[in-house]
């Protein structure tokens, strides 16, 4: 019998998270230093919110958000055009056996958080939460005491 039992893991491994964070920081540094020649990418501040890697570390997906959400689709298209240069720069900055293939997606988590916050502050939710506060408290009884 083997001493090492492999369990199925649903989320990313520790290695994927660690390498993803290194790649995210390196890509953010490239954007911060304005190393890209594309006028769209060099004028709009871009935030890299997350990097997800495949288990073999060969493919990386970066979630990005342009400041103010301006021209998000154009930013993604420009990042796809600059993919080869960005991959080359990441290979120089992060010591990996293979430079991962890059893909970019617009991060919509901020919009989703705003939508949830608006729902929670809606009058219908406030009304539902208000009903719970008006319910009478349960009667407190002490065990072992007889009431007369």
TrEMBL record:
Subcellular localization, as worded in the UniProt entry: Cytoplasm
Chain positions covered by the region annotation Disordered: 127-148
An annotated Gene Ontology molecular function: ribosomal small subunit binding
Keyword annotations from UniProtKB, A to Z: Cytoplasm, Ribosome biogenesis
Keyword Cytoplasm: yes
Assembly and interaction partners: Monomer. Binds 30S ribosomal subunits, but not 50S ribosomal subunits or 70S ribosomes.
Record-stated family: Belongs to the RbfA family.
Known role: One of several proteins that assist in the late maturation steps of the functional core of the 30S ribosomal subunit. Associates with free 30S ribosomal subunits (but not with 30S subunits that are part of 70S ribosomes or polysomes). Required for efficient processing of 16S rRNA. May interact with the 5'-terminal helix region of 16S rRNA.
Protein name: Ribosome-binding factor A
Species: Defluviicoccus vanus
């Amino acid at each position: 019998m083997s001493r090492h039992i492999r369990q199925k893991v649903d989320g990313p491994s520790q290695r994927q998270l660690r390498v993803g964070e290194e790649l995210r920081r390196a890509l953010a540094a490239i954007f911060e230093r304005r190393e890209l020649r594309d006028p769209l990418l060099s004028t709009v501040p871009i935030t890299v919110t997350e990097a997800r890697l495949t288990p073999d570390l060969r493919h990386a997906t970066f979630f990005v958000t342009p400041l103010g959400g301006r021209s998000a689709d154009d930013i993604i298209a420009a990042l796809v055009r600059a993919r080869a240069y960005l991959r080359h720069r990441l290979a120089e900055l992060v010591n990996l056996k293979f430079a991962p293939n890059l893909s970019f997606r617009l991060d919509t988590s901020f919009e989703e958080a705003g939508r949830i916050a608006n729902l929670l502050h809606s009058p219908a939710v406030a009304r539902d939460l208000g009903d719970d506060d008006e319910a009478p408290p349960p009667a407190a009884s002490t065990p072992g005491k007889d009431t007369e």
